[in-house]
């Protein structure tokens, strides 16, 4: 039996299976606020893998699943508050990033070793390098991880990354710069690319 994520929407449903044509994110969100029971599920399906990847890099494993679920539930409930000042995907990323940061901040007692086991493997040629980078990545503050992830790993422009996190462009630049410096100081020279 497939997992039910939203009412009447299964994980294996496609827009065609729900009767919705390929629509823009904004149209799907508008349809959801107008009462269409399938529109938000299609929106969720469209973005869940990328949102999960972002949440995993910030919070790790099971916490990432919780962050995506919490964030998407919040977006589902607050869709009427979307003002259209950014793209729907930017809005969703902001909600999920904030949910991941909230979970990470609430669980400071979680040992780094536990987070290391739950973190997805980094793409790298050498296993030792992956382990060094992953250990140091997890020692960054959640805010620094989020900044580095959005700007350097996912390629968001600083202005959009700042909007996702909800900080000024200057704060985003500063966080990304500090995160890069912290990683450069902590990773042995032989392990750097």
What can you tell me about this protein's structure?
Helix 2 (39-59) crosses helix 7. The protein is built from nine helices and two strands; from the N terminus they run ββααααααααα. Strand 1 (4-6) and strand 2 form a beta hairpin. It has a two-stranded antiparallel sheet. With 193 residues, the protein is mainly alpha-helical. It has helices at 25-33, 39-59, 61-78, 88-106, 112-118, 127-139, 142-153, 158-165, 169-186, and strands spanning 4-6, 9-10. Helix content is 65%, strand content 3%. It has two domains: 1-120, Rna Polymerase Sigma Factor, Chain: A, CATH 1.10.1740.10; 124-193, Arc Repressor Mutant, subunit A, CATH 1.10.10.10.
Quick structural gist:
This protein is mainly α and 193 residues long.
Question: How much is the radius of gyration in Å?
Answer: 18 Å
Assembly of the depicted chains = single chain
Poorly predicted ranges (pLDDT <50, ≥5 residues)?
1-17, 111-125
End-to-end Cα distance, whole Å, is 45 Å
CATH superfamily of the largest domain: RNA polymerase sigma factor, region 2, helix turn helix motif
| Widest β-sheet, arrangement of strands | 1-2
Helical/strand content category: mainly alpha
Output the number of helix runs. 9
Shape descriptor reads elongated
- How many domains? The number is 2
Characterize the largest beta sheet: strand count, sense, and whether it forms a barrel.
2 strands, antiparallel
> Which series of helices and strands comes N to C?
EEHHHHHHHHH
What is the residue-averaged pLDDT? 78
**Could you tell me the number of beta strands?**
2
The CATH architecture designation of the largest domain is Orthogonal Bundle
């Amino acid at each position: 039996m497939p997992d039910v994520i939203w009412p009447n929407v299964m994980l294996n449903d496609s827009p065609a299976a729900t009767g919705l044509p390929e629509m823009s994110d904004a149209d799907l969100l508008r349809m959801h606020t107008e009462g269409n029971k399938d529109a938000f599920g299609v929106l969720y399906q469209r973005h869940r893998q990328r949102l999960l990847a972002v949440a995993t890099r910030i919070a790790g494993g099971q916490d990432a699943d919780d962050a995506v679920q919490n964030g998407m539930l919040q977006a589902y409930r607050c869709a009427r508050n979307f003002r259209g000042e950014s793209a729907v995907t930017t809005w969703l990323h902001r909600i999920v990033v904030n949910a991941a940061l909230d979970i990470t901040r609430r669980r400071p007692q979680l040992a780094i070793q536990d987070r290391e086991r739950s973190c997805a493997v980094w793409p790298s040629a050498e296993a030792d390098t992956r382990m060094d980078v992953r250990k140091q990545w997890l020692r960054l503050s959640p805010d620094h991880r989020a900044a580095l992830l959005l700007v350097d790993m996912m390629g968001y422009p600083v202005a959009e990354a700042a909007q996702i996190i909800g900080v000024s462009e200057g704060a985003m630049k500063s966080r990304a710069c500090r995160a890069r410096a912290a990683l450069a100081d902590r990773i042995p020279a032989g392990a750097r690319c």
